[in-house]
TrEMBL record:
<keyword id="KW-0964">Secreted</keyword>
<keyword id="KW-0044">Antibiotic</keyword>
<dbReference type="GO" id="GO:0042742">
    <property type="term" value="P:defense response to bacterium"/>
</dbReference>
<dbReference type="InterPro" id="IPR042307">
    <property type="entry name" value="Reeler_sf"/>
</dbReference>
<keyword id="KW-0732">Signal</keyword>
<keyword id="KW-1133">Transmembrane helix</keyword>
<feature type="region of interest" description="Disordered">
    <location>
        <begin position="172"/>
        <end position="210"/>
    </location>
</feature>
<feature type="compositionally biased region" description="Pro residues">
    <location>
        <begin position="180"/>
        <end position="191"/>
    </location>
</feature>
<feature type="transmembrane region" description="Helical">
    <location>
        <begin position="318"/>
        <end position="340"/>
    </location>
</feature>
<keyword id="KW-0812">Transmembrane</keyword>
<feature type="signal peptide">
    <location>
        <begin position="1"/>
        <end position="26"/>
    </location>
</feature>
<feature type="transmembrane region" description="Helical">
    <location>
        <begin position="401"/>
        <end position="434"/>
    </location>
</feature>
<dbReference type="GO" id="GO:0005576">
    <property type="term" value="C:extracellular region"/>
</dbReference>
<feature type="compositionally biased region" description="Polar residues">
    <location>
        <begin position="196"/>
        <end position="209"/>
    </location>
</feature>
<feature type="transmembrane region" description="Helical">
    <location>
        <begin position="355"/>
        <end position="380"/>
    </location>
</feature>
<feature type="domain" description="Reelin">
    <location>
        <begin position="17"/>
        <end position="186"/>
    </location>
</feature>
<dbReference type="GO" id="GO:0045087">
    <property type="term" value="P:innate immune response"/>
</dbReference>
Length: 437
């Protein structure tokens, strides 16, 4: 009896698993009849973009009235779409889901027909999830002339898709070309050219690019975050080596750490709120959430009752340097991700490269250099301090004018150079983001 129950449970699990697999495969292949009304993919936890999509709907008419109309779904720039759904509705009764006409496939390798609202061929979707720059299908009216609108949804990737674009079908062109005498000898027949009429989206969106502006502000805050974080790290380095023998040094270090960490914490929290409000994107939210954790550790370190001679001071300093490094790396990752995504559209049209991306790559390399510098100081700290102490203990007649050792001067110059370079790169990226349309 127990074995029978076990077998039943096993078969039930197998059936459930196969059902999930079939649904997942079917959705990537464009079979999702449950989306006939909204045209939106049912991707839980992800909302459609409200900004203008980098895609458009166009129409191509033949010379003869009554012939099929070619509907063209295409990319406006270098951004390509993996999924789509298209239908035609009567504009006078769109709320009641009244399909009009029928679609005919031109390329069955990339598109498939859907039977929505109980009618055959009333919608079209993708057959696979490969990247596409253009899809063409034919559409024929069902006899009676109506005011027809086409709705199209585009999906760039699983977590990025847009609300449906709504476009009106233009009236058949009525302009006639002047007649000319027919030649006496027959000429070889050739395909009749088509007249292409481009139609862009005509729906009224929320304030233009409101979500994109929100993302830009969040990325700008991350750029400011990188500047303050680098200044904090270099000030920490200079104070550690320059004032090593001064009694007020440690209090000064903790005070500057408290001020800069508070500024960074405010920027991180504000960015997290902006990324989380709308639209939700997993990668930036996850990265900034980790950033907030690291900044919290830095703030906690500033309040810890650790003095210059405390036995836990080396561990305290090592933890701080680790937080500095990881914070920098994650901040650059967020900025880089934002810059790359902001280039979807006109900035990447025809495969062009944005100078902002080039600056961002150089910025990333620069940050890598700062982390190498931080790592070198971490391992050579005691050696540098011993050398400074030896240089200062040497007798010299000009001891008043030689208060800093050559090693300390080189350390200060390098730290200041790295901080200024980070600020320059971050400001350049800020200008690049602000120039984005």
């Amino acid at each position: 009896m127990g074995g029978c129950t076990l077998n039943s449970k096993m078969w039930l699990q197998i059936l459930v698993g196969l059902n999930i697999i079939s649904k997942a495969h079917g959705f990537s292949g464009g079979i999702f009849p449950q989306s006939c009304g909204s045209l939106l993919p049912e991707h839980d936890a992800f909302r459609p973009e409200t900004s203008n999509p980098p895609f458009a709907v166009a129409f191509e008419f033949s010379r003869h009235s009554g012939d099929p109309v070619t509907v063209v779904l295409r990319s406006e720039g270098a951004t390509r779409f993996r999924g789509f759904m298209l239908d035609a509705q009567d504009s006078s009764s769109i709320s009641s889901s009244s399909p009009v006409g029928q679609f005919l496939l031109l390329d069955s390798e990339i598109s498939r027909l859907l039977d929505c609202y109980g009618s055959k061929g009333t919608a079209v979707s993708q057959r696979n999830n490969q990247a596409k720059s253009q899809v063409k299908v034919n559409w024929t009216a069902d006899g009676e002339e109506k005011d027809v609108i086409f709705r199209a949804t585009f999906l760039e990737r699983f977590d990025r898709f847009w609300d449906p674009i709504t476009v009106h079908l233009p009236r058949f062109p009525t302009t006639m070309e002047p007649s000319s005498p027919e030649p006496s000898s027959p000429e070889p027949s050739s395909p009749e050219p088509t007249t292409k009429t481009d139609v862009t989206q005509t729906w009224e969106p929320t304030p233009k690019n409101s979500s994109e502006h929100t993302k830009k502000v969040a990325i700008l805050l991350m750029c400011l975050d990188s500047i303050v974080e680098e200044v904090k790290m270099e000030v920490f380095n200079i104070q550690t080596f320059l004032f090593a023998s001064k009694p007020f040094n440690f209090g000064l270090i903790k005070m500057s750490l408290l001020i800069t960490s508070s500024l960074v914490f405010a920027a991180d929290v504000a960015s997290l709120v902006l990324f989380r409000v709308f639209p939700f994107e997993v990668a930036p939210v996850a990265l900034v959430s980790v950033l907030v954790c690291f900044t919290s550790v830095e703030l906690l370190a500033a309040f810890m009752p650790i003095g210059p001679s405390h036995e836990l001071k080396p561990i305290w300093e090592l933890v701080l340097r680790g937080c500095f490094a990881l914070h920098h790396i994650l901040t650059i990752a967020v900025i880089f991700l934002g810059v790359v995504r902001s280039m979807d559209g006109d900035r990447r049209q025809n495969g062009g490269r944005s100078w902002t991306l080039i600056v961002m790559v150089a910025f990333s390399v620069w940050i890598l250099l700062t982390q190498i510098w931080n790592l070198v100081l971490c391992f050579l700290k005691q050696t540098i301090l011993d050398r400074n102490q030896t240089d200062q203990s040497k007798p010299t007649r000009r001891i008043r004018t030689r208060s800093l050792s050559a090693t300390t001067v080189a350390l200060i110059i390098t730290s200041v150079t790295l901080a200024v370079g980070t600020a320059a790169f971050a400001i350049a990226v800020i200008f690049g983001i602000l120039e984005e349309p």
